[in-house]
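WARN no homologs supplied; continuing
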Amino acid sequence: MRNTRTVNRNRIVVAALFLIFTLSFVWNAIAEETHPHIITTEWLSANMKRLDIRIIDIREKVTDYWQAHIPGAVYINPEALRLSDRGVPVKLMPPEALEIMLGKMGVSRMMKVVVYGEQSDYKAAYLIWALDYLGQSFSGMLDGGFSKWQQEKRPVVTQDYPRARAAAYSIFNLHEQWRAPLRAVKAAAENNSSVIVDVRPLEFYTGEKGFWKRKGHIKGAVHHFWGDDLKADGTLKSKEELKQAYEKIGVTPDKNIIVYCGQGQMSAHTYFVLKYMLSCFKVRNYDGGFNEWSSIAELPVVTGQK
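OK structure emitted
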C-alpha cells in the first residue's frame, strides 16, 4: 500500500512539472513574433478555447458586446474599475473591490488574461496596468483590438455568454512599483528624480484646452502623445520606432519614469508600451493625473510647450 501511494505521489509530481514546463513553453511561443504581453489575433484565434485563458471585453458600450464579441469573452465596463477617492473622481478602485470583481468574472491568479477594447484605444491597457498592480501572473492586450479581429472575419458571437464560474481571487502583495502616488509625483517635480511624461493631446499639455480648473501641465513634464505609439490600423508601432521617439524626450530604460494624463487611462497605454515594448521597468502610472494635480492650488502648473 505504501509503495502504491509513493508511486501515485511521484506521478502527481511528474504531471505538475510537465504542466509547468508546458505553460512555460506556450508563453514563450507567444513571444516568437512580438512579446508575450502583446497578443496577436492569430494566436488568440488558435488558443481561445483553452480553459486556462480568460478573455475580457472592455469596450465602452455593453451594447457593442451584445452585438458581437469574441467567443468566450466576459464583459466589463471600463468605468466599473474606477471610484472617487477622498473627493478625487475616477481613480482606480480599492484592491478589495477589484478582487471581488475579478473573482466574479471567473479570473484566477494563474490564468492568462487577454484583454481587448476598440481600435486605437487605451482602456485595455488600463486593465492590464491594474492587473500588474494586483500582481496578476499573466496578462496581455490584443494588438489592434476587436476592430482588427472583426476585419479579419474571425469568429464572433452575439448574446451567447460564457459559462464563467466564479473564482477565488486573492491578492498576496500589491505591486506598488507600478503606481505613482501624489507624493511621488510632487517629489519628482521638485528634485527631477524622474522623467515625468504628459501623454495627453498637445493642446491640453500647452493649456490651450482642458477640462480642469487650471489648464496646462505639471512643472517639468515633457510631452509625448499616447496615440503616436500606434499605426493607422490601431496596432503598435515597431520597437525601433518607439525607442527613437522616446529617446528624443529623454525616456530610456535606465530612468525613473512617471506617466500621466487626465485620469490615468491614456497614460496606462504609455505605461504598457514603455514596460512591455521598451523594457522600461522603472515606469509608474500616476492615475490621479492632472485631474488631481490641478485641483491642488499650491502645486505648480505650467502652460506652453516648455
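The chain is about 35% helix and 15% strand.
OK
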